[in-house]
Amino acid sequence: MSQGEAAGCGTAKPQDQGWAWMVLLAAVVLQGLTLGFPCCIGIFFTDLQHEFQASNSETSWFPSIMVAVLHGGGPLCSILVKRFGCRFVVMLGGLLSGLGMVSSSFCKSISQLYLTAGLITGLGSCFSFQAGVTVLGYYFVRWRTLANAVASTGVSLGFTLWPLLSQYLLDEMGWRNTFLIFGGILLNCCVCGAIMRPIQLASGSLPQSAKPEEEPGSRAEEAQLSNGASPHHPTLQQHTKRTKCFQMLQKYLAFDIFCQNKGYQIYTIGVTWMMMGFALPHVYLVPYAIHNGVEERKAALLISIIGFINIFIRPLTGLLSGHRVFTGRRIYLFSLAVLLCGLSNFICVISAEFSVLILYCVILSIAMSGVGALTFQVLMDVVEMDRFSSALGLFTILESTTLLIGPPLTGLLVDITSDFHYVFYTSSFFLISAALFMGLSFCALEKKNKLREASKAHLDNPSRYQYSEMSTEPKAISQSPPAVEYITSI
């Protein structure tokens, strides 16, 4: 929501009541349409392979690109939100998503799907989802935490319904007509965006970044101008461009935090490594089940089971992690959830019977609920909230990179060995190693900070980011909505 857009509204609209609840309903639908959509792509895996005579590696690039762009397009989305407002970006995302899937139904090669369904639909879903999350910060102040929790249930609903609908349409109409219908369904993101009308904020609740701020480079420019330098001087113009470029990178990609904050560094590396294996079951579970003789309808039901259990477990996990007992220790709860995800994959290796796969989906869903509920809460614990938005930018860019390359590399391994078991071996390796790395590293970091605190107790000059690395006290949450916030959900 841009400041100009907010000012364009005539009268102030009440927050936390009235139309805000319609916006929340739209956000639930929006998250189901966008974040829930990639889960159904595995159902088309076998048909696309036969249609285009493609290998596992070539076919898996299609969902990988979609998910990577969906997660990594946050910085671009936030720039558009600042410039044009949330409502416009949500509707733009709906148009791109619909256009991408309609175009996909006419593709003649698997590489064309990379562009249409992968890049265009993925980018559209990113715009709609992340702008939709941002607008909740404007409509809700008192009930913002509840609103975000309720909105996230849309992801679980999408996980439940998309696979069932996909399998039905695939059986009745084939994948091309199904993609065409999907394009029409995703256009409903535009309807959700239309509901998210601009809101007039009170002067006291304007987001921080909407207020005029002094740019770090402005003083340097003023100093040069006061010394007689012309504003059109080539040297000064180059300096200004470099300064603005640096400001942009620092605002949306927090490299300075990554270098100075050990907690953020460990967590970002751990989650980036984890994502190499996290998405593999979503892409390959249905093909694996079909390959081992499970009926296609039953195979599609497996993904729906994961989504259905998530509807109930994810909110409970969020409530549990919010208890003061876990304050400052959520990283260990997160590592435990990642470890359980990795260990659960061995169930698929033992047997591919449908009853065994159901057990696998139940355990995986419980573990995934913990990962999804804690991912960004842990990030808030290790990074100061005034830099959270920029820290999240670098975080999502890095994790989207491994989300992109993980499934195709594993598909190449399956092509070479002709053994789907390597999907779950690979997933377990990355998940278990990431869980151990994060848990043990934070344990060592905590001990190191305690020793440093004890040895330098007489000094009261903590480093800029030391508090966020070692604090065990809950942080105050700002009541003003974030001007730009790009969030992904796992």
Order of helices and strands: HHHHHHHHHHHHHHHHHHHH
Per DSSP E runs of 2 or more residues, the count of β-strands stands at 0
What is the molecular shape?
globular
Largest sheet: none
Number of individual domains = 2
Rg on CA atoms, Å: 23 Å
Number of helices: 20
GO molecular function, one term: monocarboxylic acid transmembrane transporter activity
InterPro entries: MFS, MFS_dom, MFS_trans_sf, Proton-linked_MCT
Protein name: MOT6 protein
Membrane topology: Multi-pass membrane protein
Written overview of the protein:
The chain is mainly α. It folds into 2 domains: 183 residues, Up-down Bundle (Growth Hormone, Chain: A), CATH 1.20.1250.20; 199 residues, MFS general substrate transporter like domains (Growth Hormone, Chain: A). The chain is 75% helix and 0% strand. It contains 20 helices and no strands. It is globular and about 70 Å long.
Question: What are the main properties of this structure?
Answer:
disordered N terminus; 2 domains; 20 helices; 75% helix; disordered C terminus; 490 residues; mainly alpha; Growth Hormone, Chain: A
Topology:
Layout: H1 3-7, H2 19-34, H3 45-52, H4 56-72, H5 74-84, H6 86-104, H7 110-139, H8 144-186, H9 188-195, H10 218-226, H11 234-252, H12 255-260, H13 262-278, H14 280-291, H15 296-321, H16 330-350, H17 354-382, H18 388-417, H19 421-455, H20 466-470
Give a short overview.
This protein has 20 helices and no strands.
